[in-house]
Amino acid sequence: MASSETAFAEAHRARGLAPFLRSQMRNIAPFLTLIFLSAFFAFASPSFATLDNLGNILTQVSVTGIIAVGLTFVILCAEIDLSIASIANVTGIAVAYFTLQESYVNIANIPLPGAVAIILSILLCALLGLVNALGLTVIGIPSFIMTLAMMQIAAGISALLVRGQIAYKVPSLITTLGSGSIGGIPWIVIVAAIMLLGGHLVLTYTRFGRYVYMVGGNREAAEYSGLNVKLILGAVMVISAVCSGIGGMLGVAHFGSAQQNEFDTYLLDSIAAVVVGGTSLFGGRGGIGNTIVGLFVLGVLNNGLDHVNIDSFLKILIRGLILLAALIINVYAQRLREKAAE
Amino acid sequence: MSAGRSPILELQGITKSFGGVEALRGVDFALLPGEIHGLVGENGAGKSTLMKIIAGVHTEFSGRFLIDGKETHFRSARDAHAAGIAMVHQELSVAPDLTVAENVFLGNQPTNALGLVQWRRMAREAGEQLARFGIDVDPMSRLGDLPIGLQQLIEIARVLFSGARIVILDEPTSALSPPEVERLFTTLRRLREDGTAIVFISHFIEDILLVSDTVTVFRNGRKVAETASAATSKGALIEAMIGRGGEALEHSYTDDLMLPQPSDSTVVLKADQLSLARSLKDVSFEARAGEVLGIYGFMGCGQQELSRILFGKLKPDGGTLVVDGTPKTFASTAAARRAGVALVPESRRDMLFHQEPVYKNISISILDRISSLLLKPTQERDIARRQVEQLQIRPPVVGLDLGMLSGGNQQKVALAKWLTYPPRLLVLCEPTRGMDVGAKNDVINIVRDLRARGLAIIVLSTEPETVLSLADRILVLKRGALVREFKNEPVSKDRLLEAA
Ligand SMILES: Nc1ncnc2c1ncn2[C@@H]1O[C@H](COP(=O)(O)OP(=O)(O)OP(=O)(O)O)[C@@H](O)[C@H]1O
Ligand SMILES: [Mg+2]
């Protein structure tokens, strides 16, 4: 039985290299993009391909990486979370709000012990995630709209907390994790690596992870299998908000200040990292591995453009074009895969 | 038939393999204009694969392909369409989010000089076309909201009236009830008069014999027989299909069948006065442990809605459900599953994960039984392997993506997912749809075995044969109301049809 089964499987699998590559397009294309970009910048600038610069790139993508972990869960379920950057921002501001600031900072804040400040901030982002979750599952607002509203709500809370001021101090644990380093390796890189690894383990080896893929793959079938689809969707929205919150707290420490609109670019960057890495916008395909490749593509692109001598205004356009190319590949990879499956 | 006509389509020595597995081996096939050509064969015999080659879906194969005597090679389904070939696929390929009218005109909507879609004209013409086919629906309603049988009819109508010279129907009647099937056959005969060549695939051998001029039998990727329908019989065809005497397998249920004395075992489910908008009116019944309750009715009689209510997918407007003595209102399918209810719906598309391997499809509903936090892939595969073996799912490879299985084998997977930890109440909608005679028999045996293990089973079907072959007690549902109960009395296909 077993041997005939493997023979069968082999025969089915061995369908020539071309179809295999086509079906794996989703994973291969981002990787090729990464290699191509790295080679290009290494060739174009002697300062790019150095160990120091690799460290720079890693540090630069860390905050995006932390936020993108949760977003990967959401996109795998074929939903979207547009409130990630705002939630990161409000959580970063909250943790500063609960910390004693220097006297010249003109914020009517509530100083609390560091641990309490951190816990309250995490509760805050979890709560905002829960509101997203309830809006999506109980009321039935599409995630695109619900999180768009949340984006504004979180920005509003941020504004009320800082009132146009800038806060600098955060609990010492956060300061260390955000801007300290150990043995030459920045803590923030380590935190990002641990969270990415954790996300990967959850998605690959746990029951919940399987449910995420199945709900994303075919929501109707998941429901007919008796899965609690709403619970799973709700959970990913909360996970996304908490990851954003952690990213926001460390980001504030990393930048050295907490203020309004500090994280605005992270919305696009996080979505881009997930999608460029090859996770399907239609759900069910991809994972943290893809997100990591996407993060590097983005990191190399952002960093590399600074190493070559081109008009800095042109850089913005170039980034946009490369993202567009990656999105086109994402959509085509889906079609090619369907083609290869026939 | 008549030797004078030359084939409109001719295939010679077609071989098609998916990787190392040969789905077709050296098949010759010819189609004459004005003929209805029936195609039969076991699940996985290669019927759909051959038709997909003709319709330009599979473009890589070896062998000669001639249209009107000219060698042709399609590069896509569009090429085939341009050559006048249209196909109704086994899996519905409608666009559920578009309107009925848009689906009827899919790809060639009428437009005005500015290139804008002429909605009103489209709706009117779609309505007229469907009416000619006996379908009465609002052309502007969303297709996905209609019952699956109606969706299937609309897809058939689209293909039949597309003006194609070659029409391929891959198990078109699987979701239809007798009156619709009758109407379809009338239309097919009319098209035949106009010289259209029609291929008709079905597991209903009687239908094949009734409507087709020629029958071709497939077994294991080979063509094993081709005869005039008039010169063959059901038994002979089944024998050619499965290679052994098959008459015992297929019962025709035209004679009276005696239903047993109703059981007085514990009531697992009691439905009381269920009602749902325009679909169901005061439906009350009991399902007992160790009994198979059949619910028969024509398409659109409310069966689908009823099954969804039992599984917590739809909420009834009124009425109560009592499971094992406790009243329940299922907030979700998960709640229904926890209460011990399982459903196999009639649509594979809704039930299965086509891009995932077979074993994940089988294990999905029992993951919480075999693992708490971490997955146990080895155990999952073992369980799946056991089910694959028991249901004889082909190919027997649990790691294969589900989409690579033939239609009938996918249907078996849908059943397999509930069998490892049997529920208290199993609701089966069209459990044998798309299955060959052998597989149908397997399902009958499995259901009997589950009944012997004390499950309450409800079988809902629009095929009288399915209900008759499985049920101990039969309810007839007509326009949302229960109109007749058969128990402890003789019943036959005719009696059922009459009651519905
Ligand atoms: N896309 C695919 N990839 C791999 N194998 C496939 C694919 N499609 C079909 N097959 C295999 O080819 C064989 C023939 O399948 P096909 O769908 O033609 O059967 P069928 O006669 O239509 O059966 P059914 O009555 O169940 O619909 C089966 O073994 C099936 O698993
Ligand atoms: Mg088929």
Describe, in short, the structure shown.
With 342 residues, chain A is mostly helical.
Question: What tags apply to this protein structure?
Answer:
heterodimer; A: 342 residues; mainly alpha; disordered N terminus; B: 500 residues; alpha/beta; Rossmann fold; 6-stranded mixed β-sheet; 18 helices; 32% helix; binds adenosine-5'-triphosphate; binds magnesium ion
Characterization of the model:
The complex is a heterodimer of chains A (about 350) and B (about 500). With about 350 residues, chain A is mostly helical. Chain A has one domain: ABC transporter involved in vitamin B12 uptake, BtuC (Orthogonal Bundle), CATH 1.10.3470. In chain A, strands 1-2 form a two-stranded antiparallel sheet. In chain A, α5 runs antiparallel to α6, α5 crosses α12 and α6 packs antiparallel against α12. The longest helix of chain A has 30 residues. Chain A is globular and about 65 Å long. The two termini of chain A are about 25 Å apart. Chain B is α/β, with parallel strands linked by helices and about 500 residues long. Chain B folds into two domains: about 230 residues, Rossmann fold, CATH 3.40.50.300; about 180 residues, P-loop containing nucleotide triphosphate hydrolases (Rossmann fold). In chain B, about 30% of the residues lie in helices and about 25% in strands. Chain B has 18 helices and 22 strands. In chain B, strands 6-7-8-3-9-10 form a six-stranded mixed β-sheet, with helices on both faces. In chain B, α16 links the parallel β18 and β19. Chain B is globular. The model of chain B has no long low-confidence stretch (mean pLDDT about 90). At the A-B interface, α1, α10, α11 and α12 of A face α10 and α11 of B. Magnesium ion (MG) binds next to α1 of chain B. The site of magnesium ion (MG) has 6 residues of chain B, from α1.
